[in-house]
Amino acid sequence: MSIAKGAAPLVILGLTLLPPLASAAGDPFLTVIATRMVIFALAALSLDLILGFGAMVSFGHAAYLGIGAYAVAVLGGMGVTDLGLQMLAAALAATLFALPTGAISLRTRGVYFIMITLAFGQMAYFVFVSFSALGGDDGMALKGYSTLLGLPVLASGTGLFYVSLALLTLALIGLDRITRSRFGRVLRGCRENSLRMQAVGFRPFPFQLTAYVVAAAICSVAGVLLANQALFVSPAYMSWQRSGELIVMVVLGGAGNLIGAVLGALAIVGLEEGLARFSHHWRLGFGLILVLVALYSPGGITGMIRRILPAGRPG
Amino acid sequence: MSALLTISGLTKSFGGLRVTDDLSLSIEECTTHAVIGPNGAGKTTLISQLSGQLRPDAGQIIYADEDITRLDMAGRVHRGLARSFQITTLLPGFSALENVALAVQARRGSSFRFFRAARAEKALNDAALACLEEVGLAAQANRLASELSHGEKRQLELAVALATGPRLLLLDEPLAGTGHDEAEALIALLGRLKSRLTLVLIEHDMAAVFALADQVSVLVNGRLIASGPPARVRSDPAVRAAYLGEEEADPCCASRV
Ligand SMILES: Nc1ncnc2c1ncn2[C@@H]1O[C@H](COP(=O)(O)OP(=O)(O)O)[C@@H](O)[C@H]1O
Ligand SMILES: [Mg+2]
Known about the structure:
The complex is a heterodimer. By secondary structure, chain A is mainly alpha-helical. Chain A has one domain. Chain A has helices at residues 2-16, 18-24, 29-51, 62-77, 83-105, 110-129, 157-180, 182-192, 194-199, 204-230, 240-253, 258-278, 282-296, 300-308; strands spanning 140-141, 232-233. Mean pLDDT of chain A is 90; it is low at 311-315. The two termini of chain B are 30 Å apart. Chain B contains 10 helices and 10 strands. In chain B, strands 6-7-8-3-9-10 form a 6-stranded mixed beta sheet, sandwiched between helices. Chain B has a 4-stranded antiparallel beta sheet with strand order 2-1-4-5, covered by helices on one side. Chain B folds into 2 domains: 1-80 and 166-257, Rossmann fold; 93-165, no CATH class.
């Protein structure tokens, strides 16, 4: 945790400086990429709560990105453009989907949990594919950006970036507290040894389900932001490949380490965009890099940093 | 005196193997009841059914005048029925203190608290440290459970069980694998606990068993072949033939009986 403590403010500070640097470099597209990084960092962070701290490997987490994005489309279509209201609606919808599907998924363990969350994710995907009023398979363009206190803050690239960064920072601080709290300690304990936790009097299920729902709600906020960036929503937001990418971000960053999930997301989005500029076969290079990290750095990016810098014990 | 725990007709099979065979037993409050028997006799399986980890196929478990046969493990722990594990079951990435503090947390207030750092809760830490002191592990409080020696892990296992605030403690071979000095210290600790708790003790160390137990039951192939005060069980011909006799053939163990 010591590395997370030192690294988190540095990472956030570094991100804060990106838009001015981008405009100094005369490449506004860099801000677009940076925004994408921050939004996916928020999604990966939410997944880390259940995957890293709860050992619940959800392969359907992108469903909540989609639910958040469609919340913007539906509410925007009804003329409700306020970002706060849209985030609230997104979190509510995510909770409604996460409660029953999480409760069912948590009846299983290990590979079965991965499979069943994948199945629920695909279910959400196909529901939106068949929803013709929302554009079906093709998706739909949004009428406009969400507003903040009636102001079109998100209409500018920099505005969207800083709102996203503020939400990421909030989530980082909030999740840091949650994972150290009594609740978080029980969650981490169940990750390490469920039998031990039951033998001291805990029932893991309500703790795990609560974490599952909180992660879903946070991820839906990332979906709200993503819809604003693209001004477009489609079922592709919730594809299983997207869920897989989120897992890769968390694992690459070092599961169970919040700033690791952020760094993992930054690295993956950065690699995608960077490699895509060089070659259409970027996925190949991407795969190669992942294999190298898996082979040489079991703790992901944070594990690598920890080995380079002599730091305190994790935990 | 009324019985704190009453088991009747308890039966459990794994496939075709009957591991608990129509077992009935009654344990008085504030007594120490040792269960002995050869390896594979079904002692751990019995403890697992009493603690709620395993469901019996048939039979009934009455604890403090309540039928707990279908109650889950957490429910039993909250009623004061706790166990320790023969195979060390700890949270390896947590410090010794936090392993114990979690057990204290489980019975003190809600764990649905999301903001305050649990590790800084002094009341939990103080109670946990007291348990570590009781088992003689206070000096290792801040070391990770995974870094402790085997003997220290056994001590920690006991400290965690104590921290649940038990009324009846099920101890599955607490001395297994400990060195001579550690075993001596643990036996002394069990002697102190004996006066304030009800203990069900599974142990192979016969010296410890006969020093601590008020009652001894002998389990062979899932069946009780004898139960009663130590002196009577020790002289029971069936027991000598089935169990203790084997050990007398072994000079090392015989000397400890
Ligand atoms: N989960 C299980 N599945 C199948 N067989 C088991 C299981 N647990 C224990 N057994 C078998 O039940 C018998 C009793 O085991 P156990 O209760 O561990 O004995 P003890 O603690 O007296 O050495 C052994 O033959 C063991 O192999
Ligand atoms: Mg055993």
